[in-house]
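task queued by scheduler; priority normal; single chain, no ligands, no partner chains; default sampling; output format set to C-alpha cells
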Amino acid sequence: MMTGLRFSESIRRAMFALVTLLPVYVALIVSPTQAQDPPDDVPRPFRSPLITEWGARVTPENAWREYPRPQLRRSDWTNLNGQWDYAVTPRDQETPPSTWQGKILVPFCLESKLGGVQRLLQPDEALWYRRRFTVPEDGQSGRILLHFEAVDYACQVWVNGKPVGRHRGGHTPFSFDITEVATIGDNQLTVRVVDETEGWQLRGKQVLKPRGIWYTRVSGIWQTVWLETVGNSYIEKLDVTTDGKSRIEFDPTIRGIQQVHRIVVEVRDGDEVVTRLDHEFTPHRIPIPVIEVPNAKQWSPDSPHLYDLTVRLVDRDGNTLDKVESYVGIRSVGSARDADGHLRFTLNGKFIFHFGPLDQGWWPDGLLTPPSDEALQSDIKFLKAAGFNMIRKHIKVEPRRFYYHCDRLGMMVWQDHVSDSHNAKWTRMAPNPKDADWPDEHHRQFLTELERMIEHLSHHPCIVVWVPFNEAWSQHRTVEVGRFVKKVDPTRLVNIASGGNFWPVGDIADHHNYPDPAFPFDLDRFGNFIKVVGEFGGHGLVVPGHIWDPNRRNWGYGGLPKNAAEYRERYIRTLKKLNELRARGIAAGVYTQTSDVEGEVNGLLTYDRKVAKLKAKELAELHRKHLTLSPAER
C-alpha cells in the first residue's frame, strides 16, 4: 500500500513538471535560434531552460527590426540584424579565418541562448563575424554610414577586405563612413572582436566565472547593426537642451557644408506646429539657434509631454539636403531645501521624491540584449503601473530605445557608468576614504567612455542623475571625475558614488543598506548634499519553475522568506522604514530590484518575467499607503 502511494505521488510530480516545463522545452526545440553544439573542448556558459515569452518568438526575420535611434530618425536605412557567419580564432590571428564555424543571430551575443551559439569567448581568443549586404544603384549618390549600436569590447571592421575603422568600448554606439570602399551591388562586411571581460576594460556585472552578484559574460555584437544613406551634406548629430521652461537650444553637428546653408526647425505638439525657426549659418560659424515655445508644457512622470521636431538642412537655393525627425521634453532638474532645511530633489521647481528599483537589464535568453523592443517596454510599463517614478539603470547602458520609452512613458532615470575590476577599498560613508590607484592610460579611457555615455544620452529628458561610481567599484580620482561630469553636463545632478566611498563632490550623498534602509546622518558632512538610500530591500523569493539554475545557491538579502506572505510582510516593513527616513530628510529610495538575475532571486519579477511576486496594482497601493509626503516637503 505504501509503495503504491509513493508511486502515485511520483507520477503526479512528474506530470506537474511536464506541464510546467513543456512550453519552455517546446520553445527551445522550435526556436530558429536554438543553440548549436560547439565541439566538446570549447568552454560553454551555463545553459538554463529559462526563456521569456518574447525570446520564444524571436526569429532571424524579426530580431530587433525597430529603428535604433529615435532622436535622429531618417527614412532611408537598412537593418543588418539576422544570421551572420561567425568563427573563433586565437587572439593573435589578425586576418579573417578561412573556415567559418556556423551562424550567429545578431544582435545577440556569442554566449546567449538567442544568439544560437552559447560559447564562452576566452581572453586569448578573437571572435569574427561576416555577412553580405547590398548597395542599390542610387545608394552612392551621397554617403553610406555603417552604424554599430554596441560591440563588447574592442573591434576592427572591414568592408570588401578594406579596413574602415576600429572602436574600443563596449557600451555606446559608433559609426564608420564606408562610402569610399562600398560598391553598388554586393558587398562583404567583416568584424573582428576581442573581449577580455575582466582586466582594465569596463565590463559592468560580467565576469569570467559567474557567481553571486556577477553574471555571465557578453562578447561581441550585442545591439543592432545598420546602414544609413545620407546626402553629401548631412546632420550628423543633434544636441538639444532646454531651460526647463520654454526655450529650446539646438546645437547641430553638420558634415559636408562648404557654403551658406540654413537650418529649418518645426516644433509640433501633436499635429499642430507651435513654432518654427529658419536659421542661416556658414561652415565656419554655426551659432546655437534658440526657439521659444509659447505656453510650453513641461515633462514629468505624471505628464510626460514630448514635442516632435522636424529638422531640415537647406542650401542657399532652398533645396532640402537632409531631413531628420526628433523630439524634446522640456523640464528642469535641481534641488532645494525643504521647511526643515533638508535638500530635496526638484523637477520643474517642485519637490519630488525619487522612488524606483535597481534595474540590471539582464535577460535569461539575451543576457545584456533584451529579446525584443516589446520586452524592453514591458519592464518599464510594469514599474510604472507599480507606482515607481524612477529607475536606477545599474552598471549598464541600455539600447537607445529604452530611454525613448522612459521619455514617452514618464520614468526618470539615474544612469550608472559601467565599471571595471580595479576597485578602491570600500569604506562606505566613513570619513577619509581612499581612491584606487589608476594609471593615466586607463583613467583616460574611463573618462572617454564616461563622456561618450553622457553625450550619447544627453538629449533624453528622462535622465536626471549621473552615477559615475558604485560601491567603490573602479573608484579613483573621485573629485576629478565628479567635476568632469559637471563640466560635460551641468544640467543634471551627479551622484558621485552610489553606496560607495563618499567624497564632497557632486550633489548627492548615497548610502546602501540591506535589507532595511538606513542612513548615517551627519549634518556636518552631508548637510549640503541630497541624502538618498541608493540600494535597499533585495527580498528574495524562489518561484519554482522560474529559476535560472535550481542546483545553485539562489539567494536574497536577509535570507529567504518561508512563503509569499512573509515576502509581502518584509516588503511592507522596508517601505515603512524608508518612510521614516523620508521624514528625516531622505530624498530617494532605490529598491533592489526589478527582476531576478541568475542566482539572485530578489526581483519583483522572475528572471523570465513570467511571474510578478507582487502584482503591479498591489505594489502601487502599498506605495500610496506607506510612502507619504512629509510636512516639510509640502
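post-processing summary
- DSSP finds eight helices and 34 strands in the chain.
- Helices lie at 2-30, 373-385, 400-409, 440-457, 478-488, 523-526, 564-583, 616-626.
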